[in-house]
Write a structure and sequence with these properties.
single chain; Pep_chain_release_fac_I; Aminoacyl-tRNA hydrolase; 6 strands; translation release factor activity; Pep_chain_release_fac_I_sf; about 140 residues
């Protein structure tokens, strides 16, 4: 059952609010300048390697797909697009869910197909025309 604050990535993969860590800091972008500012930059961290929320069948897939984004098994999403901290928190959660959803869905493998006879013939005809064009550029031999 999904509680308030929990995030459902895919059916059977629900991240509890307690599994997420947030860190706030001054943003260099909107809402970060000036003295009287809120800490609008949000870093949202989720421990993919050690979290009990990640199903065991999906953990190796997610770890392999997101290996360039993980630091010690922790996925970090940083957002400082908006002026308000609340808006950045919502964006960070949406980006985290998007990353995990794309990591969970395995790409479809391309089924190898053969070239059609017509495409092979067109390719060879084009090569012959090109060769003939180049041959006609040469100095004639008497």
């Amino acid at each position: 059952m999904v509680k308030v604050g929990d995030i459902e990535v895919v059916p059977g993969f629900i991240i509890a609010e307690t599994d997420l860590r947030e860190r706030f800091s001054h943003s260099s972008g909107p809402g970060g300048q000036g003295v009287n500012t809120t800490d609008s930059r949000v870093e949202l961290m989720f421990d993919v390697a050690r979290s009990g929320a990640v199903p065991d069948r999906l953990r190796p897939v997610i770890m392999a797909v997101l290996k360039n984004r993980l630091v010690d098994g922790v996925l970090t999403v940083t957002v400082h697009d908006e002026r308000s901290q609340l808006a950045n928190r919502k964006l960070a959660r949406a980006r985290l869910v998007g990353l995990l959803q794309t990591a969970c869905t395995q790409p479809r493998r391309r089924r190898a197909t053969r070239r059609t006879r017509g495409s092979q013939r067109r390719r060879l005809d084009a090569k012959k025309r090109r060769g003939e064009l180049k041959r006609n550029r040469q100095r004639p031999t008497w």
